[in-house]
Records
---
Amino acid sequence: MAKNFGKWLISGPPVLYLIVFFVIPTCIMVLASFRYAGEYGGLAPVLLRDASGAHLNLTLESYQEFFSDFIYSWLFIKTLIYALVTTFFCLLMAYPLALLIARSASKYRDLLVLLVILPFWSNFLIRIYAWMILLGPQSAFSAALNGFLGIFGVGPVRLLFTPFAVVLCLIYVQLPFMVLPLYANLEKHDPALLDAAQDLGANGWQRFWRVTFPLSLPGIYAGIALVFVPVLGIFAVPDILGGTRGIMIGNLIKQEFLEARDWPFGSALSIMLTIGAMIIVGGAALFAGRRRKGDV
Amino acid sequence: MALLEIRNIVRRFGDFTAVDGVSMDIEAGEFFTLLGPSGCGKTTLLRMIAGFDSPQSGEMLLDGRDLASIAPEKRPIHTVFQSYALFPHMTVAENIAFPLRMRKMGKAEIGEKVRQSLEDVRLADRGGRYPGELSGGQRQRVALARALVNRPRLLLLDEPLAALDMKLREQMQLELINLQKEVGITFIYVTHDQTEALALSHRIAVMNGGKVEQLDEPSKIYDSPKNRFVADFIGTCNLIDAEVSVVGEEKMVLQIGGLGEVAAKNPGTTCGAKGILALRPEKVRIAAQLVPGSDENHFKGRVHDFLYMGDVTVYIVEVGEGVHIEALLPNSAAGRPRILAVGDPVEISWRYDAGTFLDG
């Protein structure tokens, strides 16, 4: 009895917190996606009373709207592509970086990790606006790039307000979230395993592919989850850098809530996004779980 | 020609000289042990033979070929690591197949060799398990199987039994001896455990401070230690300061402060030389009353203290002025440990050639 009490004392507050601020709001949003929009925005009442009494005032209209126009599905697919490209390039750049930090002398490691998370010390929006300046037509970066392309008779290209700008900034914003779990994994590898692999005849490349890489898969999965999922819902980056062509599903959801004031449709989009993310991440985790059976 | 010739190997780390001009020849088929306290350079030497580290000077020749010119992954030398270093993401069978796959051997041949290898280490039913699912002893056997599967010229073992409990360690020692006999591969074994070294090896190199103190067969190392360090490090030993007073053809007389004259074997020293008498406790007879033989030293004393060890009792006997000599008494008879109590008068004796006089 006393033992259980102690357990609840410790796990109770976070459970309560999640129920109040996650489970209940999610339920409210699921319900909202089946309701009608109010006349001046917001939501129409759930129960309607008329002569025959009270009856439920729910509808599938929002979901019908989602599937009636391919433009919404396309926005989903486009967002998915942005997220995949971002995750891919984050992984490609973060892996060597994490490996470098993990293999460097222990006295430098903390400093290098600190440098990776240093950007977090300045405001997220300010960093995005910095990219706006960097990619703007007047910037030295744009001038240099266009000057270079001009040699080959190409361009000039516009960088700002393009999908390219969005993905470039997404990679920048999400890179530390890939580096940190990878580093945490790689740093724990027993160096004796690489000695053993070399001792048994493996050259440098084989040591990486057969030992380091498979052992780092849990770190890769964690990094993918941390980069991929947040990108699906992001709206600030495309808002500032994307123009009209770089719009993502997060922008549409934000618009439905704040500008169109169509809460049921915004809720339905959010629910669809959550379900989509769950299917992708859940499927990946299942796949990873099978692969990771051997880890101890 | 010896299988492995080690010539004047020196390895320094900053100001610290880990291996200080070591030379030795290791013969084919030998079970050779590097024995010494931690920091004596034995592991550094082993790592240089494997190729994980390189000497600053000196050379190592395997079958007459300079090892420095062969990359670690190309050397026909495999290592059993102290931590076993089994690949946690591979099954037991995949672990053992690893060195074969690195040599681009055919699938069918790999399968056959792995199966045979698993049988050799009595793990035929464990091939599909992951290392994390095995006991310590089983992991040890997998590590051995993996290192031996493609028959290296030389197997290096870095304290491979250190992580096992005592019972299992003794069992694995027997298995190691048998395995080495069966495969006929040269083993170089590193340990700080002197009983393990004595039990396993054909020859032992006792190392200290980066140098080889003595290189000999186990019985020679134990019975005729070359210096104070070896006598002290291997087993327990009475080390008594002594001075040579009379030198005969085969025998000599030592003068020991507080005790008097003691007969000893003459190792070829001169009169007046100072040194120590190294005397193993089990070579000292002890009883309430003794009839000494003609070749024996004989002293009367008192039991100063004793340690009951189960199989034997160690008596610390005070003879003469402040001279303490340890003697062993096997507890083979019932009630033995109670025969002598602290303060009891006892007599001890030992043959003149039971001890070794060490100069300096």
---
Amino acid sequence: MDLQQYQSAKLVLLGDMGAGKSSLVLRYVKGTYFDDLAATVGAAFLTKVIHELGIKFEIWDTAGQERYHSLAPMYYRGAKAAIIVYDITSPESFARAKNWVRELQRQGNPDMIMALAGNKADLEEHRAVSPDEAQAYAAENGIYFVETSAKTAANVSELFMDLARKIPKVEATPKPPQAGIALDSQPAAAPRSSCCG
Amino acid sequence: METGGDEHSGPETDELGFLLPHLTEQQQADRQRSHNAAGALGREEWTRARIKRRLPRPRVLKKLLRKGGVPADLRPWVWFEISGASSLKASRPPAYYSDLVAASNEGCACARQIELDLPRTFVNHPWLMAPEGQAVLRTVLLAFSLHDPKLGYCQGLNYVAALFLLASGQDSERAFWLLAAMVGRVVAANTYGSNLVGCHSEMRTLGVLMEKKMPRLHKHFQDLGCDVSIIATDWFLCLFATSLPPEVAARVWDVLLYEGSKILFRTSLALLKTYEALLITMDNSGELMHALKHSTGQLWAADRLLSTAFKGIGGLPRAQLDRIRRKQHAQVAMMLREREAKRMAADRQQQQEQQGKHQEEQPGKKQRGAARKPARLANGTDRQG
């Protein structure tokens, strides 16, 4: 397939500082783990082509500190998928992950595919968030959950591949859709109407 | 395999102790020319200043700082004077810093966040990657978080504090006062505060200036849906310490510390102008940001950058700049207030939904939908109830 015909999909990583967002992305894109990764200020951008699915991921890796939250809409706007990362050794990072899920449910693209990733699964002896609790939370919110380790590579490519498979296919058109910008013609699905039980 | 090896021909470092990457011939020439300019210009004035321990007159000083910069060995002293760090220190009791350090040993609210960033601040600097350097950086950042408890610690300050440390002979107290002056006197108010509100305003102001000065590039950004903030966040928070080669950033700080935050706009506009032809060929915002980051990271021609900043982008009258800033600041404050109000309203609604769920056994009580609703059925066949 011609690279031009690949479907671009914007993917954003959100989560507490030090949860391992950059490490996850680099493990996936470059296939290695860096012990000495610089702290992200602003955001980093990487791409990854998945040939078998005809998808080109455009990955935005964001800064994690709470006060940087105010910059996040710029990165998740128009995103097809989001990975919300927490650190299984940090209950605070899990609480922040929940805040991110809430914010994306409220503000994000309503068709956005979300995944919750409990990273640093190799640090089992320091675990502070149980997988059952995270799984239950994810199920309740209809999002995909997996525990990962950027260090050992456990579940990392699986996570990205699962997201890629869930992204709805766009009909192949002679001209590829413009990268990076999602023009949402759908009316915003604000959760204002309540449905009957 | 054995590590270590030849200590005499170890990797080459720059004047701040950073490992130098492999430079092309052109980059080496750019670097050398910038260094020569710094050495040649004002040698006499700097020598006189050094002997008398008194800075040159303001008009001469301004010119020296813009044209050649401060000789590296004079930076600890010159930066301390021109930034206002010296007068800031004089305005506090002599033991102010050591008291803060003592207090920070009792524990700090931001200690965890600072700890996370220590081992990932300038990973290309051997001293900062060693426990010794990290201990000194920790001391400076913890003391600063107590000096300005409302700000505490903001990511980005780690790089700013580290560069101050490296440029002032690893003297932690000097770096502390320089950091306090940079945050409190040089950059815009609340740049690092809650929600980064000052940073947002500055970035939007840059957008307005870009529209005025580089309308074609601005239009291109708009066509791509590329917010200027995407490329400028680290410019305004790390003050180019992570965007330019560190010694080039230090060269920008020579002017920034004396002339103030306006220099951040001049440098930003100069960078955009330098790479305008490249940026205009980019067809999405991610590639654009990536290309710009890559290019600025290899900009060794400090002399050319500063010359563009002062001669290549036209006037930047203070009154006009402040007018734009005030307007942008008001808009940012409103945007953040509205977002916060929306968030609180949504949280309230969710609480009510949860209460509703708890009362669902009550007959006649309507249950609200779950957080994620199933897709609506087609053709409106779902009409019951």
